[in-house]
């Protein structure tokens, strides 16, 4: 055995295929004529390529280990005009695969492939997002061709073997260079790598096996969702080429603004304006809840009672537990927060003005000096939000 391929690649005889490939990739990148500057780089590159051709192939490596000639006479007598001795050239595709750690698929590829995933957006009302619903959704996607059932061929015909690549799905080109014959493999231009051609394509889908169509699906919305949440519908996306399995459909939700409520996590916030007298004397006020937007909700759930304590100040927040948004994939509900805004009358008749004057005298408030009261940030934040909602 005149050539020690293991020594050329710098690996032991018991090296694994992964070790051999790694060693070859490192040497090939170092010695390739396009990057190497050493005078003997070209010759060393050819030896490394020959060593990998033998040791990278399980059958050739076994023959070599048993003392045989895996290159059919090329081991002892040079390269015979190419990298691979008697096989007529060096496959450059294998070099690229080894250098960049890739593995080029060989042979014909299937016409049937999985379809792409699809993303659509769906707008919900606040009550629908809070309590859950089922919404019809119209989508435009690729569907299985009804005429050919995904085969792509006209009725009574079928794909035939490609005459260019003879069913291999790829063609090989040989180019001579100063380092020998270089072979490159690429998908067949006639069949596009399928190995077969469809002489009589389906008139409905033009051979693709699928057509675009509108369809309506019902999407179940769980209670407690919010803007940005996505619902995953498996196998409801695009049907793949050749009638392949459908991809998945993702429905991204967007909750429309409500005219009364603002959502804060699982809480619902609203602003309620009350008269000055009600704030001073105290009262009970019935207000609608978010359930009022639901047609099938019980009447007793559509309203609730707010207790206004005597002397209530503007900006006071009354919290009603269990009246907010149901927690997504959990139990319980958030709060319904009602911020009370005290309205000062702007139009008074003579009698009303006189009554207020008498009240101010009784309270010794005819001459008032204002006082500054410090509040925490949370209070002002709630007050600011309340005014913003007016």
From TrEMBL:
<feature type="domain" description="CR-type">
    <location>
        <begin position="132"/>
        <end position="214"/>
    </location>
</feature>
<feature type="repeat" description="CXXCXGXG motif">
    <location>
        <begin position="188"/>
        <end position="195"/>
    </location>
</feature>
<feature type="repeat" description="CXXCXGXG motif">
    <location>
        <begin position="145"/>
        <end position="152"/>
    </location>
</feature>
<keyword id="KW-0235">DNA replication</keyword>
<feature type="domain" description="J">
    <location>
        <begin position="4"/>
        <end position="68"/>
    </location>
</feature>
<dbReference type="InterPro" id="IPR001623">
    <property type="entry name" value="DnaJ_domain"/>
</dbReference>
<dbReference type="InterPro" id="IPR002939">
    <property type="entry name" value="DnaJ_C"/>
</dbReference>
<feature type="binding site">
    <location>
        <position position="165"/>
    </location>
    <ligand>
        <name>Zn(2+) 2</name>
    </ligand>
</feature>
<feature type="repeat" description="CXXCXGXG motif">
    <location>
        <begin position="162"/>
        <end position="169"/>
    </location>
</feature>
<dbReference type="InterPro" id="IPR001305">
    <property type="entry name" value="HSP_DnaJ_Cys-rich_dom"/>
</dbReference>
<feature type="binding site">
    <location>
        <position position="191"/>
    </location>
    <ligand>
        <name>Zn(2+) 2</name>
    </ligand>
</feature>
<feature type="zinc finger region" description="CR-type">
    <location>
        <begin position="132"/>
        <end position="214"/>
    </location>
</feature>
<feature type="binding site">
    <location>
        <position position="202"/>
    </location>
    <ligand>
        <name>Zn(2+) 1</name>
    </ligand>
</feature>
<dbReference type="InterPro" id="IPR036869">
    <property type="entry name" value="J_dom_sf"/>
</dbReference>
<keyword id="KW-0677">Repeat</keyword>
<feature type="binding site">
    <location>
        <position position="148"/>
    </location>
    <ligand>
        <name>Zn(2+) 1</name>
    </ligand>
</feature>
<comment type="function">
    <text>Participates actively in the response to hyperosmotic and heat shock by preventing the aggregation of stress-denatured proteins and by disaggregating proteins, also in an autonomous, DnaK-independent fashion. Unfolded proteins bind initially to DnaJ; upon interaction with the DnaJ-bound protein, DnaK hydrolyzes its bound ATP, resulting in the formation of a stable complex. GrpE releases ADP from DnaK; ATP binding to DnaK triggers the release of the substrate protein, thus completing the reaction cycle.</text>
</comment>
<comment type="similarity">
    <text>Belongs to the DnaJ family.</text>
</comment>
<feature type="binding site">
    <location>
        <position position="188"/>
    </location>
    <ligand>
        <name>Zn(2+) 2</name>
    </ligand>
</feature>
<feature type="binding site">
    <location>
        <position position="205"/>
    </location>
    <ligand>
        <name>Zn(2+) 1</name>
    </ligand>
</feature>
<keyword id="KW-0862">Zinc</keyword>
<keyword id="KW-0346">Stress response</keyword>
<dbReference type="InterPro" id="IPR018253">
    <property type="entry name" value="DnaJ_domain_CS"/>
</dbReference>
<feature type="repeat" description="CXXCXGXG motif">
    <location>
        <begin position="202"/>
        <end position="209"/>
    </location>
</feature>
<protein>
    <recommendedName>
        <fullName>Chaperone protein DnaJ</fullName>
    </recommendedName>
</protein>
<keyword id="KW-0963">Cytoplasm</keyword>
<keyword id="KW-0479">Metal-binding</keyword>
<feature type="binding site">
    <location>
        <position position="162"/>
    </location>
    <ligand>
        <name>Zn(2+) 2</name>
    </ligand>
</feature>
<keyword id="KW-0863">Zinc-finger</keyword>
<feature type="binding site">
    <location>
        <position position="145"/>
    </location>
    <ligand>
        <name>Zn(2+) 1</name>
    </ligand>
</feature>
<keyword id="KW-0143">Chaperone</keyword>
<dbReference type="Pfam" id="PF01556">
    <property type="entry name" value="DnaJ_C"/>
</dbReference>
<comment type="subunit">
    <text>Homodimer.</text>
</comment>
<dbReference type="InterPro" id="IPR036410">
    <property type="entry name" value="HSP_DnaJ_Cys-rich_dom_sf"/>
</dbReference>
<dbReference type="InterPro" id="IPR012724">
    <property type="entry name" value="DnaJ"/>
</dbReference>
<dbReference type="Pfam" id="PF00226">
    <property type="entry name" value="DnaJ"/>
</dbReference>
<dbReference type="InterPro" id="IPR008971">
    <property type="entry name" value="HSP40/DnaJ_pept-bd"/>
</dbReference>
<dbReference type="Pfam" id="PF00684">
    <property type="entry name" value="DnaJ_CXXCXGXG"/>
</dbReference>
């Amino acid at each position: 055995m005149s050539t020690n391929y293991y020594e050329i690649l710098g690996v032991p005889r018991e090296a694994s295929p992964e070790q051999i490939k790694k060693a070859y990739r490192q040497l090939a990148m170092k010695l390739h004529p396009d990057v190497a500057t050493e005078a003997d780089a070209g010759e060393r590159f050819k030896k490394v390529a020959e060593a990998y051709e033998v040791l990278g192939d399980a059958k050739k490596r076994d023959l070599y280990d048993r003392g045989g000639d895996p290159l059919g006479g090329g081991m002892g007598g040079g390269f015979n005009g190419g990298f691979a001795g008697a096989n007529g050239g060096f496959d450059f595709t294998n070099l690229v695969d080894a250098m960049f750690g890739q593995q080029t698929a060989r042979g014909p590829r299937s016409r049937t492939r999985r379809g792409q995933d699809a993303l659509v957006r769906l707008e919900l009302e606040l009550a629908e997002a809070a309590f859950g619903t089922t919404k019809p959704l119209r989508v435009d996607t690729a569907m299985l061709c009804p005429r050919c059932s995904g085969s792509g061929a006209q009725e009574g015909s079928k794909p035939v073997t490609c005459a260019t690549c003879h069913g291999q799905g790829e063609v090989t080109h040989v180019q001579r260079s100063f380092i020998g014959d270089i072979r490159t493999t690429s998908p067949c231009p006639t069949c596009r790598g399928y190995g077969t051609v469809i002489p009589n394509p389906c008139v409905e889908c033009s051979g693709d096996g699928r057509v675009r169509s509108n369809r309506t699906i019902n999407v179940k919305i769980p209670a407690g969702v919010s803007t940005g949440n996505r619902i995953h519908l498996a196998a409801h996306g695009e049907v793949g080429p050749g009638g392949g399995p459908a991809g998945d459909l993702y429905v991204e939700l967007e909750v429309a603004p409500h005219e009364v409520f603002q959502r804060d996590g699982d809480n619902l916030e609203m602003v309620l304006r009350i008269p000055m007298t009600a704030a001073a004397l105290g009262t009970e006020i019935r207000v609608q809840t978010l359930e009022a937007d639901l047609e099938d909700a019980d009447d007793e759930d559509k309203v609730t009672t707010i207790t206004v304590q005597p002397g209530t100040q503007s900006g006071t927040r009354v919290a009603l537990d269990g009246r907010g948004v149901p927690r997504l994939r959990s139990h319980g509900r958030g709060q319904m927060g009602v911020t009370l805004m005290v309205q000062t009358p702007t139009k008074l008749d003579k009698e009303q003005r006189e009554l207020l004057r008498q009240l101010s005298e009784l309270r010794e408030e005819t001459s008032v000096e204002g006082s500054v009261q410090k509040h925490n940030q949370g209070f002002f934040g709630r007050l600011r939000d309340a005014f913003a909602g007016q």
